[in-house]
Amino acid sequence: MKLTEFNSLSRTQAAEAVRPALDIPRWLEAVVDARPYAHHDALLTTARTAAKPFSAEEIEGALSHHPRIGERAEGDSEEAGLSRAEQAAVDPSDTGVQQRLREGNLAYEERFGQVFLIRAAGRTPEEILENLSARMTNDPATEQGVVADQLRQIALLRLEGLVTP
């Protein structure tokens, strides 16, 4: 949708329009309540600012909407479609990559107690696997900061696609 259309929606409609970008109520309210936006960069600046910092509870809630890397999001929701598009470079028929991702996801979840989150858009499977391996050496506090940053990156990329200039 165009920015002018987003600006003209009701508060509820606007929140629903951008919810697939990031389903964190505080973030949604900040983005929606700052309307009208004079230009697209103002929208992205507001979204970026509202995404700092995320609380541990907000991150936990947002992670519940993200499938594991290498697993295709199911359903026909806009959020599921965005997730599938973001992970398009991860070929489900590449059994070697799929096996390494499964093993890495399980090890990550065992270590950190949450799903491994990475901005997959624009990354190759090898880059994703390298990041996964490198992040296994993080302590939990450092990793929480990395996850928050990845969540921000995903939200901003999705928002750019949902609301265009």
Task: Supply the CATH superfamily name.
Answer: Oxo-4-hydroxy-4-carboxy-5-ureidoimidazoline decarboxylase
Distance between the termini: 9 Å
**Mean of pLDDT:** 91
Major β-sheet, in short? Answer: none
CATH structural class: Mainly Alpha
Structure classification: mainly alpha
**Topology order in helix (H) and strand (E) letters:** HHHHHHHHH
What's the alpha carbon Rg, rounded to whole Å?
16 Å
Would you kindly provide a written description of the structure presented here, covering whatever features stand out?
The chain is mostly helical and 165 residues long. The chain has a single domain (3-162), classed as UraD-like, CATH 1.10.3330.10. Helix content is 62%, strand content 0%. The protein has nine helices and no strands. The protein has helices at residues 3-8, 11-18, 25-33, 40-50, 56-63, 78-86, 95-112, 125-135, 140-162. Helix 4 (40-50) packs antiparallel against helix 9. The longest helix has 23 residues, at 140-162. The chain is globular, with a radius of gyration of 16 Å. The mean pLDDT is 91.
